[in-house]
Structures are given as C-alpha cells and as structure tokens.
Here is the input.
Amino acid sequence: MSSAAEQEAVAAERATPEAVVNGVSRKVPGPPVWPGASTPLGARFRVGPDGVAGTNFALWAGGAEAVELCLFDEAGRETRARLTELTHEIWHGFVPGIMPGQRYGYRVHGRWDPWTGGRWNPAKLLLDPYARAVDGEFLLPPEVYGHVRDWPQQQVADTVRDERDSAPHVPKGVVVHDDDDWADDRRPKTPWADSVIYELHVRGFTRRHPGVPEELRGTYAGLAHPAAVEHLVRLGVTAVELLPVHQFAHEDHLLRRGLKNYWGYNSIGYFAPHAAYAASGTTGQQVGEFKRMVRALHAAGIEVILDVVYNHTAEAGELGPTLSLKGIDNRGYYRLQSDARRYADYTGCGNTLQVVQPHVLRLITDSLRYWVTEMGVDGFRFDLAAALARSMHDVDMLSPFLAVIAQDPVLRRVKLIAEPWDVGSGGYQVGAFPPLWTEWNDRYRDAARDFWRHALPDVREMGYRLSGSSDLYAWGGRRPYASVNFITAHDGFTLRDLVSYERKHNEANGEGNRDGTNDNRSWNGGADGPTADEDVQALRRRQLRNLLTTLLLSTGVPMLVAGDEFGRTQQGNNNAYCQDNEISWVDWGLLEEPGWRALFDLTARLIALRHRHPVLRRRAFFSGRAHSADGLRDLAWFTERGTEMTEGDWYAPAATLGMYLSGRDIPGRDERGAPIADDSFLAVLHAGDRPVDFVLPGPPWAQRYEVVVDTSREEQDEAPGVALPAGTTVTVPGRAVLLLRVAA
Here is the structure.
C-alpha cells in the first residue's frame, strides 16, 4: 500500500491542469481542483471556501472510470483537469477563478465495448448535459464520431473506435451566472379554458418582418420587439407555443445535402437556449436575451409554452455522432436492445432516452424546473410524449415520468401538453393521458378536414369534436380543455395549402418527394396549387374562413399556426423541417393584400368573440339535458329542417349540422360566486357545394336570431345583423358557416 505522502502526490498530479496545444499535451501550472460538491449538477458559478469565487462542476457518469474537465481559452487552447471526487456516481470538483463566460467540456474514460453498450472514448469532447449555454455549432465532420464513420465495412463500423480529437470541431458549454429573481415579472396565468395557443418558430416568425430591425430578425430579441408582440396582441392569442428552443444539432444527411434542421426536433442541450437564435452573443448572452423575450410577452399578457424533445437526442443510433450522453454513459442514458450494439427506437430518430432510469428522469425534471423557475416559461408541449410514458416497453400511464410530474410542486402547476403518440407498438394514446395533461387531438384535426372536404360518411364524429370530444376526455375528472383542437400544425400543410393542394410537393427537401405524409385530407377546390381562376381562389378563401371559424367556435383549446390567419403558404411542402428559407418563414407582405387582411380581421374577431363569451370556452362538458321546465338544454343539434336530430340522423349521410349552445346553463360560478350567464348561439355548418335552406329553430330555443358571422362573405359586418324570427328559412350558401346569436 502506498504511503500517505505518495497518495497526496498522486492527487496533486491529477489536480494539475494539462494543456493541449496542436494535439500535444503537457502539464502546466494552474489552479487546483478542490473537492467541491456533487449537487447541483452542471457548472455553477459561486463563492467557494475562504470567499474564493469559482465554478463547481458536477457530472453524472455512472459507469465511467475517469472524467476530465476541459477548459478552453479564447484562442481555443485546451486545459484539462481530472475530477477526482466521486459521490453517488457523480464526478465533481470546484475550480477557483473560473468565471462566467468560461467555455468547457468533458472527456470521459471507460471501456470501449459496443457489444455490451459501452462507448466511452476520451478522444471525444462531450457537451455537459446541464450546460446553461452553448457556444458554437454542430457540423458533424468525421472527427466527432466515436467510431470510424467512414469505415469500409459499414455493418461493423460502429465497433471501430475513432482516436481523433473532436475538440476543434464541436461547440463548448459556457459557464453562466444566473442571479435573476424575476421580481419584476408577472405571469399571465391564463386558465386553460380561456387559452388560445399560437404555434410559432422563433426564427421564422420575424425573419421577414418589416417592423423588426434587420439585426434582430429571427432571434429571441426579434420576437420580443414591439412590432412582433403587437401582432400577437391584435390577434388576441393568449400563449405562444415555440418550436424547440433547446440547443439542437443538424443531422448529417441534411448537412451533406446543404440543408439544416429548421424545426429543431434534434435536441442536444436541455438547459441551453439555442444559440443561433440569439442576437446578443453566444457566450452566455443568449440566456438573458431569452429571459427578456419572456418578460416582454408576459407584459403583453401572453404565456410562453416550449415544445420540448426529451424522447431522443441528436446522437441518433449506433452510427450517429458522439456529442454528449453517448460518450458519458451510453447504456445508462439510452434504451438498448437485447443486442446492446443497437438502440431501441420508439421515436423514428435512432434512439430513445431511458426515462425509467432515475438519473435520466432527474435530467428531464431538472431541465423542466429550470425553464419554469429560472427562465420564466409557463408550460410545455412534449414531443412524442408516449415514448416518455413507456415503462420497460409498453406505454404506461403509471410510468415513473408521469408519476414524478404529477407530484412535483413546480411542474404540476404549469401547462402540460402531450403529443400523445410515438412510432412504437401501442404508441397511439389519444385520450389516455391523466387529468393534469392536455393533448393534441388529431381526431379533431382529421374530422374538421374531412367535414369541410365533404368526406365524412355521417356527422357523428364532427358532433363529438365540436362539443369538446367527451368520448375521449370525459373520464377521471378531465375537462373539455384537455383537448387541444387544431387543424394544422408545423408538421403538414399550412391552412392555405390544405385548401390549395391535394398532393405534397416536397422536392426541395432532396428526398425524391418520398418524405412527409400522404394522408393530408386536403381538397384543392378544383385546381392543384397556384391558379388564376378567380372562382377557385374565392372558394379557397371561403374554405379558410370555414376552417378557422369551426376551430374557434369549438369547445376545447384552439391552436393556430403562425401565418395561417393571413394565408401563409409553403408552396405545397408538407414536411418543411429542413427549409430555413422563404418556404418556411412567415411572409408578412400578405397582410398588405386585401383578401388576406380580411382573413386576419375575421380571425381576430372570432378570437375576441370567444374571449367575450364563456359559452364558447366551457369548463365542463355539456350534459345534453334540460335544466328547466321549458325543456331548454345546454346543447342541442338540429337538421336543416329545424328539428332536433334523431339517432337515425346521426348515422345518415349529411353535409349540414346545426349546433345550439345555451348560455343559460353554463356550469360553475364566476370569481365572486355568481352564476355564469351568457348569450346563446346557433352555428350552422354546411359543407355541401350547393346552397341549403335551413329552418331556424323556434321556442324554447329562441324567438329571434341575429347573424354574427357569415363565412360566405369576404368582409364581415361588426354590427349585429337584422333580427330573423324563429321559423324563418335562411339560405345557407354552399360551403359556409352561419353563426347566429339568440336575440332578446
């Protein structure tokens, strides 16, 4: 056994930093690495022993044999120091004198044994999973792969370790000092039932905005600019849902084709705002810029929801790059198959995080809490949430992930939206998530599209979707706002393209038009793509008014996609994930065209109508029963004859549906305990191409009606229409919605 003096000498040797210049390492004098603390994970600047300022570094690397902290100066010179302290599989140390702005990474030592899932390779510089900021861009040259990427026998390439240093070719983490207490921020805290969500891309939303200064376009600061915020306020939305803003990487197959991942569903840093969206700098400035954006939106009464991708990372499968988790502890972070060389892939992206492992679950929940408590966000939309809810293999609504979220004092109070499916067996889980959650309701999307292209065999499905999807969500205390209703999303046609194309046009993606779904449920009005036919153009604009009106009158939480309110087009591309250009960017010039400006005005008017009338944003499902002697029910359905629908009517082919919403029997009370009362409405939806005569229902439903919205008209009157006596036969033009208010 070595003497105490020998042990101290070894410790001192390990604590002496090692500089690497031009591939040659040498010991250099430098500050020692003190023991530090194992929590919190990541790099945290603080005052250490004896009042010495520095940074504590802590990294979970369960199966590793050694961990080196690598520090980089402005010239890119690397200094290495071993972290010798190990507590509960966390390697840690405090380095005095390391200040905010310091760039760093890790090299993790262990056994290279892909056959058992071990892929340690200290030649690869690894990004700290807890890095608060990232400086640089992932470009994926061969050096950043843990294996020899271009090995002649590709079937075994992942087993051949690449010894080249990746440090010159990968971004670095950045030490960030965060002392913001958010004392001057006021969260809107919009109730779910009152919410209107607006999905947007941080870069694409302002990249072409004429009111945003050129240097701020496409950035967090650009979204915070008054010109951008003004549009959101005028439209009336209550929350923006941002496509991924976690630091992400571009896929190799895109870079080889001269393209990049535009949407960002390829995360590699769950704590870092994506650096390319920052106007102010990338050595920590992006953190403050993101916070200022959140503050600006909050000040306008708008919540911030993040689209988050915790189901997989940018490291892909066994032939993917080694950027972070794969090199820290591959078999600890990822789900592997029985052949541990291969990854279990429930995401279609090459790998799946092993959320059932405590340290992986901790990574995700620590990240979520960070974005709420330190970055100010108000909720999350979880990409492929079913993958997170899997236990060992099957989707399990009692899974560790869902259980932890349900009891977490921070996370259970924010907005939680599931994309309730993944690509694995049994992954489709619409309607199955527990009561804390809302869900993207693709059943709503499909029904609305099919109704307005007159492709539904009957109107049963449409009735459920218009009234809150009680068949999916009326269980376990869930409410109508469990359904996030949408007709379009980032993935697929824009709303204008939905009524302009019957086939996708994804040639610009470079995949032979094979990518993207073929199940678009679209209808082009008689000509595919751009046309000079004015009748077709008018019909398409009417269909847009029909779809938007349907969405904003439906019970549940409506979600719009940026630009749909004024006719944004992607030229028929229904999978523009790699199009960081005019195909994807919002074209603000459309607002200067009268037809598209009128569509914006209608959308804003419908949202304002929704905000004014609680009958359109109910907090409880309809009962369909009479609550008073006159027989008036909270919800009733009518045929074009003005008679209530029978069981047979629901099963018969039909293009017309009348929906009566009573404002007299709204459950619940207002903030002062008074009953909630509102106007009553009759919505007549007619998807047939020929006009239909509709008889307005008489007592007890109404004595008179006023037309509020008529989508057959390009321009809408702000003042109430002429009073129409009950029993009047009104002619509803082909493919139109009439919304009528019950008049006193």
